[in-house]
Amino acid sequence: MDxxxxxxxxxxxxxxxxxxxxxxxxxxxxxxxxxxxKYTASVTFFVTTPSRGLGDAYQGGLFLQQRVKSYxxxxxxxxxxxxxxxxxxxxxAAGEVQSRVSANVQMDTVLLTATITDTDKGRALRLAxxxxxxxxxxxxxxxxxxxxxxxxxxxxxxxxxxxxxxPVSPQPTRTFLLAGLIGLVLGVGLSVLRGRADTTIHDGExxxxxxxxxxxxxVPFDQSARLSPLIVKSAATSARAEALRxxxxxxxxxxxxxxxxxxxVTSAVxxxxxxxxxxxxxxxxxxxxxxxxxxxxxxxxxRVANYLGMPTGIGLTDVLIGEAEINDAVRPWGDRSLLxxxxxxxxxxxxxxxxxxxxxxxxxxxxxxxxxxxxxTAPLLAVTDGVVVAVQADGALLVTRAGKTSRTQVAxxxxxLSSVAARLLGCVLNMAKVPPSEAYQYEAYRVTGPTARSxxxxxxxxxxxxxxxxxxxxxxxxxxxxxxxxxxRVVDQPTQELTRIPR
Length: 503
What we know:
identical protein binding, EC 2.7.10.2, 4-stranded antiparallel beta sheet, Rossmann fold, non-specific protein-tyrosine kinase
């Protein structure tokens, strides 16, 4: 993954970054509230040595700069802590005194500062005074050679003891800034790690890259689609309906030289919305005046009849085994030029039935009866039914659900189609997340009332008008009459080899 991919992953999982920052700020706030304020008191010593002349002063200065570094450790030593605890009744033991004292020396100077940190402001000041009173005689005793009354060094207090009136901790501003920065870094890191571990497809660019086929449409996620899967009535003006109309336009022009008259709609796994996509695609094609035949070839879990509100009854299976006529099985739907062939009875051998010569002959005969045939098939990775149907169609449309299907599954589905030389027309990203800017643009521009009469079946404009059907981008063709489904009794004749039926 390059930088662009990392940024895209972080943008998609912005909530992870926000949640991490909020947790970090919450922890910082909790610790700040629970923390006990601490105060500091300080005292500064100036270290000198007796000198005679400039040469002695220079050598003495170098000596003291080296010597004063050892006084830092002496200020925090056990010996000084014991002297302070014994000489000054402040209620602290030697270990408690030692834990409160720190020291530092200013660079290239002979100034030594002792800092006392305590939760009690007054006790910190008294402890600083006790340290100043005990440290000077301690240094003089240590530095004075045996038998000599004059120590070679001398310490003087030049600043303090004084206490800082403001607590040094907690510091809410610094704490919250640091916590926010840490939360931001952790959030970005978690987002990137989650993105690298998440192999599901979330955007159309990734889907196009995995399938190496055109991205024909991105159908946005619609909460109401669970209860109203079809784009009819109020749903006909939704963003989902507009995305399906774009899919209709892109699908009709995906290959002008070899247009697809029979399209198999499939997916890698179940639950990706292929059946609803097939139904809605048939609806929008019929909306534009095309004569459409929708076939439910998912003979294991048929859904088309349920979505369209039609009785199951006889259907494709009954026609293929010769128990029903095609005229009896095909039913019109709505007031559009849309006919539906349900799945019918669920057979024990769906793959063999769909791969039979009877299925091939049926599709060949139906090509002249409709402008476009949409076939809903079974998922490609679950069973072989989808591949069997796709190889007999003019092309397949692969539907992928955003955030559910993995790259591996999509790649395997693509490979399943290419292994039998089935033509993959393109892919559709279903339940995609639409940027707020795009959703706002559609809501601001969409038609909220009836502005034009929809073109219904049998009333398609003539090619001589030389214009596209309004709002579809589809060029009109001359009328071909009412749909006349052939009453052909097709008998099941399984074949050993899958062959593609030319138009």
